[in-house]
Amino acid sequence: DELVESIDLAPTFVEAAGGAVPDHVLEGRSLLPLLRGGLSGWRDAAVSELDYSFRRASFELKVPPDRARAWMVRSARWKYIFYEGFRPQLFDLENDPQELTDRGADPALASLRAEFQDRLFEWARNRRMRITISNAAVAKRAGTARDRGIIIGEW
């Protein structure tokens, strides 16, 4: 009954095979602790992204391929979808499980949309883009640039 993401599969396979999950490349979380009896503090929302440039909608909406992007944040009750260049969609999955009523323009839910937009922005800011060196290696090298002859910000 938990919210999981497809990016959780890679760390799950690494851990299941006995490996150490790298903290600087894989964004997901291993599902093994969850499968083995639960885990406190599991995520309360899942994020996904979509490139719809190959779908009919991009052609019909005249969206160029590099702008045909969408991101979704889903909690237990709400599903927020942000399409580049369009207003967001919001669905109440508890009262509208088939997502037939878009609440994305409902003034009464403006603060909820803002909350989901903030969650999406936080997710985007925390993407793991440094793939060449682990967090532990960075911490070990922090503050050693001067010792290696690299002086930044001094004249």
Your description of this structure?
This protein is of the alpha+beta class. The protein is built from five helices and four strands; from the N terminus they run ααβαβββαα. It has a four-stranded antiparallel beta sheet with strand order 1-2-3-4, covered by helices on one side. The mean pLDDT is 87.
- Number of separate helices: 5
Tell me the radius of gyration.
20 Å
Strand content: 15-25%
Give the strand line-up of the largest sheet. Answer: 1-2-3-4
Question: In one word, what is the shape?
Answer: extended
Specify the structural class: alpha+beta
Biggest sheet character: 4 strands, antiparallel
Task: Summarize model confidence as the mean pLDDT.
Answer: 87
| Relative helix content | 25-40%
Quantity of strands, as a count: 4
Low-confidence stretches: none
At a glance:
With 155 residues, the chain is α+β, with helices and mostly antiparallel strands. The protein has five helices and four strands, in the order ααβαβββαα.
List keywords for this structure.
alpha+beta, 155 residues, 15% strand, 5 helices
Task: Break the fold down into its secondary structure elements and pairings.
Blueprint: H1 9-16, H2 32-35, E1 45-51, H3 56-60, E2 69-75, E3 78-83, E4 89-92, H4 110-125, H5 135-141
Antiparallel strand pairs: 1-2, 2-3, 3-4
